[in-house]
Amino acid sequence: MMHVAWSSMKDVSTYTNELRRWLDTAWQSWARDWSRPKDKPREAPIVPKNSISGRALVAVIAIMTFLASLTVGAVMMVIAAASTWQSDVSREVTIQVRLVAGKNLEHSVQRAVEITRGTPGVASMRALSKEESGRLLEPWLGSGVSLDSLPIPRLIIVAIDPDRPPDLAALQAMLAIEAPGASLDDHRVFTQRLRAMSNMAMAIGLGILALVFAATVLSVNFATRGAMATNRPTVEVLHLIGAKDSYIASQFQRHFLFLGLEGGAIGGGAAIVVFGALSFLSARLLKPTGSETIGAMFGGLSLGAGGYVAVIFQVLVIAGVTALVSRRVVKQTLAAVN
Q1: Of 3, 198, 234, 275, which is the most buried if we count CB atoms within 10 A?
Q2: How many whole angstroms separate alpha carbon 33 and alpha carbon 40?
Q3: Residue 165 contacts residue 123 (beta carbons within 8 Å)
């Protein structure tokens, strides 16, 4: 029995030693394979990544993207402000009551208020007092000026119901008969001017964007031709070993796509920082009166979520245009050589 147990222990020890030697051999073999140089070298790009021309193109694309982003942001703010103005103006009309010889101004104002209040579609109204009407002239005449001797017209601010607006023509006719010196202003001329201003801003913005994209296309064109001329020996060797034109064009396209993304990200990021700083300054650092004025005119100089999305989309578009233009130039050049 002792002999059998001893033999079993010797067998286990032998198996353990064999397993240890096999693990050591496997570890040494794996270490040699890991430290040995790879047989297949890593594929090098046809166009160097950090060339001088590439850095210059990145700078040009960044500048163009920055200008385009500023243009898009400014146009979007003007259009948004004009839309807000039109919406506010369309919800109100103004009745002006002037002094007529032989007529009592206060009586005419009271009669205009009664007629307007009884008109269907009028949500609310408020007649400005003589003192409030006089304060409206202070920006032109200055404060402290006695206005008692001046025939200052009285104003009535009328808020209309947007769901069922009143018949303004009938209201104007009734005022002309019952309240001498009263006239209705529906701000139609002002609304038309706002619409014309927003359309002009959009047209100017589109023109600037067209010029920026044209300059970007020309820059990418020249940069691609320069890269083709610099790497001509490499391209010829690839032709000799059987590389297709599509493969060479895809290499250039990938290179210029990354350059476009880098330059676009720099320019677009700088534009986003500028708009963010303007929004912060308009909300925090300006005086209250100035801040209210700017907020009423431009919406607080805030670009909004839609504007930032437009800037990011523009970065992607410029990168895509850069890649497509480079591919087209490379294919045309290779077709001319062949």
Answers
A1: 275
A2: 14
A3: no
Query: pLDDT (tens digit, 9 = 90+) per residue, 65-120?
Result: 999 999 988 888 888 877 777 777 777 888 888 877 777 778 888 888 888 888 88
Cβ contacts of 263 within 8 Å, gap of 6 or more = 57, 58, 59, 60, 61, 62, 64, 65, 318, 322
d(CA 226, CA 220): 10
Indicate if the alpha-carbon torsion angle 68, 69, 72, 74 is positive or negative: negative
**pLDDT at position 266, please?**
93
Q: Is 156 exposed, middle or buried (0-12, 13-18, 19+ CB in 10 A)?
A: buried
Q: Which residues contact 274 (CB under 8 A, 6 or more apart)?
A: 70
Tokens of 144: 């402290």
User: Letter for the amino acid at 325?
Assistant: V
Largest CA distance in the chain: 143
Q: Which of 40, 31, 68 is nearest to 209 (CA)?
A: 68
Q: Are 318 and 68 in contact (CB under 8 A)?
A: yes
CA distance 66 to 231: 30
35 contacts 236 by C-beta, under 8 angstroms:
no
- Determine the Cα angle at 189 with ends 176 and 129, to 5°: 55
Q: Report how far residue 83's alpha carbon sits from residue 28's, in angstroms, rounded to the nearest whole number.
A: 75
Structure-derived torsion over alpha carbons of residues 199, 204, 206, 212, reported in degrees to the nearest 10: -170
**Region 183-198 average pLDDT:** 80
Q: Which DSSP string do the residues of 11-78 spell out, in sequence order?
A: HHHHHHHHHHHHHHHHHHHHHHHHHSPPSSPPPPPSS-TT-HHHHHHHHHHHHHHHHHHHHHHHHHHH
Asked if pLDDT for residue 23 goes beyond 60, the answer is no
